[in-house]
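User: For my dataset I need records formatted as: sequence, then structure tokens, nothing else. Please produce one.
Assistant:
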Amino acid sequence: MRKWYKYQLVPRRGNNPNQLSDSGFAKYAAQMGGYDADIESYSSKDAFLKRWFFGYHDRRLEYYDEFLRKYLDRREETLFIGSGRCANEVRLLEDGYRVVCSDLQKPDSFVSLQRLFPSLSFFNLDILATPAPKLFDTIVVLGVIYNFDGDEIERFFKFVAASLKPNGHLILDSAGSADNIL
């Protein structure tokens, strides 16, 4: 098993202030710009995508989308772990992909998002504590595991493996938070 090390240069000693396991969903949501449903960006599908997908974080989500469309099969069911506001997921959903969103908890904006995208599916999942409630063909995890220490990464892979169908696929991005230059 490969060991993972995470270092951060900070002017004080102590726990990593960005580590999700120490701070929970609320702090991570704040780091991602919050998951509130402002009236303007949740007024229509186009407004949502313009605000939260196109150009967001220097086009990071657009690059993910381009990659995912090359490797996902529309016929297969794909679970996204750490979905947050589900921007990548709704883009794929609109084009006929079978996607299911998950995160530690539903963001405050989810009710507004589901009004725009009624077929959007979401469930709460702590992948460090339990596998998904059913098996999936593919699991996609974008910008999440940088929060995990070595023990958490072991649990992550254990529960992801238990959530995949035989011969299933894991698409994993480990580059880090949205403000990470990688």
